[in-house]
Amino acid sequence: MTDNSLSPAPHGLEAGVPMEVYQSWEGISAHDLMLLSRSYAHYREAKLNPKEPTPAMRFGSAAHTWILEPEVAPDQIVVAPTVDRRTKAGKEAWADFQAMSNGRTIISEEEAHHLSKMASAVASSPAAMDALGAAPWREHSCRFKRHGVAGRCRPDAAGHGIIVDLKTTQDASPAEFRRTAATFRYHWQAAWYIDSLNPILGSNPFVCEFVFVVVERQPPYSVGVYTLDDQALDAARQGIESALEVYRLGEESPGYASADTCQELSLPRWAIDRDNA
Fold first, then answer.
1. Is the pTM of this model over 0.85?
2. Domain spans of the chain?
3. Alpha-carbon distance 150 to 248, whole Å?
4. Each residue of 14-46: pLDDT tens digit?
5. How far apart are the C-alpha atoms of 124 and 118, rounded to whole Å?
6. Domain 19-52+110-250: which topology?
7. Alpha helices (H) along 134-268
8. Phi and psi at residue 132, in whole multiples of 5°?
């Protein structure tokens, strides 16, 4: 992989766009596709009533900044002091701290310890550093059109011919990440980013490579670096087209067929095999 850290990001990638601004852009994101895969109602509900970030999401966001953009981490992340907020002095100290934090992501001392170890683990992985070294453009945002539908994406890291996505997890082993990728449809994200960014990042006849850098949140902070095979990406593309069709239909989308008629279901093969064992 080529180090293009001194090259300016190509036209189409926008640097310095705050996350809240990016999220306000018109266009379907990879996360939106997951919602549309369930129903248009799920997508609409998420847009009308967005949920507050969970602790896991907040930690994941802090990990991205800490590991991928350490130079800006002090401006975006602040470590909370250990105070007893049941006491008057503790309440005052916490109020002063919150005022000082000024909108930055607040993490605990324990979380800061984990983030430091995770960053060191990623830095110690030759495969991870090879991928990240070839992807110097961090947290750039992009808008595009796909089959007449406005789309958007924000790769964690990108370079000519490569997109890198950082994932934090409990188990970064190949066997477990396969299951995680299938459960959370990471193959959809990979296909969406590849097909949308290839005109910007690729150089024909080369196609962008999508690399997952996966790091565990707990000791020993093991790291895995993975790509997905063509079978997974082709399956994702079929699913994405179905989700985009749901978006095009909008309120006319049928939703769950079981809302209109009673359906007979089969159990997964593994459940049948388990009971027959």
1. yes
2. 19-52+110-250
3. 11
4. 999 999 999 999 999 999 999 999 999 999 999
5. 10
6. Lambda Exonuclease; Chain A (3.90.320)
7. 174-183, 186-201, 230-249
8. -70, -30
